[in-house]
Predict the 3D structure of the following.
Amino acid sequence: MTSRMARPNKDELRRIRAEAVVWIAELHDPHRERDLDARVNQWLAEDPRHKAAFDRATALWQSTEGAESTLRSRAFAWMSRVPRARFWAPVLAGGAVFCGILVAAAFYLSDARLVTGAGEQRTVELSDGTQVSLNANSRVLLQYDDRVRKVTLARGEALFDVAKQSARPFVVVIGERKVIAIGTSFLVRREESGAPAYAVTLVEGRVAVEPLSGPDVLPTVESVGLKLLRPGERLRFVGDAPGAVDAPSIAKVTAWQHGQLIFEDTSLAEAAAEFNRYGAVKLLIDSPRIARLRVGGVFRIGDPSSFAQAMASAYQLRVVDQGRRILITEKISR
């Protein structure tokens, strides 16, 4: 006999997801009913797919909170695609539910997103207890389901403090590879270079980095194309190349969380590129000789001007303020 849970049809999945969105909307209503928590818990216990849909809806609500005006034009087109759940009628009258409908519109038209702009950092706790800390100019896509907690780093840098769930691995997609964890802390970064380049730094616990074609299961031994990291190790790679492992200072690679950049024997070109990840004012270097100069020290993320002046003083250079650009160049000979 075939289980009715084995192959749910699209309408059934849409109904489950619609119900999850409405529950989320009701939970955010300041005038919610007293027995709401109990009713939500009962619904979650009825079917494991309910929990997966609830997790994804929660992540979406967090990532789109305050974006109602953007979603308003999509709401009614979405509503026509979703079968009415048994409890739609009584809740449609609530103002919070209208926000829920707007969130639901994005729920079907795009993946949940966490985004930061220039100079912005953000920490979000996901529905499973995982904390995601995004550095500036970062974008993460959330794709939770009942089998795997999947996240894609589209750009930038993020620190993941993963809540342990042995039955549902946590996977971060980075280019043509992925990082697999169960419960741990690690940093993933897309390098700012011409070709897609990434770095994975393990803070604690255990992670594996492997091709996308591998199973979403945390392995116990290494194999061809699969790398297991130890705490403190960093794997850096470009495309599908094997990559290299080193052991940077954890304080250095996480200094951005404290508003700092730490350089140790770094080229001036690399340091300038790091500053340029933040804010609207960009550092420019007009000489290959200057670009190769070595930099060390602790600097404030939001103060590229002071950094440029420090480099000019240390290496007898000249700084030209061009408004939204700061040029570091050779001194004019007299």
Q: What stands out?
A: Confidence is low (pLDDT under 50) at residues 1-8, 65-98, 100-111. The longest strand covers residues 197-204. The chain has three domains: 10-110, 113-250, 259-330. The chain is about 30% helix and 30% strand.
